[in-house]
Amino acid sequence: MQTTILTASDVRDIVHRVGLDALMDETIARITEAFATFDPEKIAVPARDGFQYDSPDMGLIEWMPCMRAGDSVHIKVVGYHPSNVERHDLPTILSTLSMYGVHDGHLRGVMDATFITALRTGAASAVASRILALPDSSRLGIIGCGAQSVTQLHALSRIFRIKEVCIYDTDAAAMKTFEKRVSCLELEDLEIFPGVPQEFLDEVDIVCTATSVGIGEGPVFENGNFRPHIHVNAIGSDFPGKIELPEELIRKSLVCPDFANQALKEGECQQLNPAMIGPDIHNLVKDQASYLNARERETVFDSTGWALEDMVCMDMFMEYATAFGIGSVLELESISSDCMNPYQFLLESSAETETAVEKSVTDLKQVI
Predict the structure, then answer these.
(1) pLDDT in tens, 126-183
(2) 182-214 pLDDT, tens per residue?
(3) Is residue 341 part of a domain?
């Protein structure tokens, strides 16, 4: 019984071979298809759960399961620690993915999910924005210039011809390095303007909020005179009590969560009662024709992170690993030749030792 392991190096190797743009395009296409065909009778996605704590630093470790009936269970374990960048020079989000067979519980695969989390979050915003934002949207606002901001710009640039990006972060260093960090995207004629939200939110078509704002410290911008068709991808809320958007905006917008049960607990939907919430993202994709008129009004994609997206991405990377012959195959599980005796390996070791001793004696006698 063998387990395929994809390390961070393996993931990067796949990205280099496939190409960053091609990989993002495929991720957007696969996630769109997964939303369009989502059937809760075939795919079970419970709300994530985990541990939140304040010591030694504020953070959480949580698990995000997803089961494909009759086939496999995928579980992402993710750590969120806002102080990581400053205190440990690490990304705010670190995570791994594992996959188990439902027939026998065998661990089929384990892989890095830090890259995948950023990739699929950007792709999910692109899926929602393609439906809810105006097709000729060209001005993007980004509030929060950390790791997620890079994939937000990348994904949206694959759907829209983004000409201008207005950026803001409470960390001046994050704003200063943003242009260098997105230079690998090779976006032609892209202009980047640092500023504050009050200066640019009335000029942009799409806004992405990707902050590490503390519990009870939001919103990250004030309500204002936004463009009537503004679309917001709110991806930073992931704690009860943590919000990024002003209540006035979210109450007058069509709000589409990725996963309503989860968003009501820890997303922007915390500010709404269930009756005020629009369609989940999978229903939006399935019936997008009914919501195209929403492009003329304020819309919000409440993206808390859906485990279905992680399953889609892990499947994609495992397929590429097989095609390219990438990854390591290890025997991680202790499986005895006698499934009813967990100590069988001791008996086998003893027998092997006795055989080796007998052979040594025989060989010695032949020499003598």
Answers:
(1) 999 999 999 999 999 999 999 999 999 999 999 999 999 999 999 999 999 999 999 9
(2) 999 989 899 999 999 999 999 999 999 999 898
(3) no
Over residues 238-250, the pLDDT tens digits come to 888 899 999 999 9
**142 and 259 in one domain?**
yes
Same domain, 103 and 174: no
The residue written with tokens 């989860």 in the block is 262
Structural domain boundaries, residue 23: 3-115+309-330
pLDDT number for residue 339: 85
Pairing of strands 59-68, 72-80: antiparallel
3 state DSSP class of 286: helix
The residues that bridge with 109 in the sheet, in sequence order, are 4, 99
Residue with tokens 């496939």: 18
Q: How far apart are the C-alpha atoms of 190 and 165, rounded to whole Å? A: 7
Phi, psi of 165 (to 5 degrees): -125, 120
Tokens of 238: 């992931």
Q: Is 351 part of any domain? A: no
Query: Tokens 């065909």 belong to which residue?
Result: 37
Say how far residue 331 (Cα) sits from the centre of its chain.
28
Domains contained in the chain, number: 2
CATH of the domain at 56: 3.30.1780.10
- Does the global pTM surpass 0.70? yes
Q: What number is the average pLDDT over the span 57-67? A: 94
**Co-location of 153 and 230 in the same domain:** yes
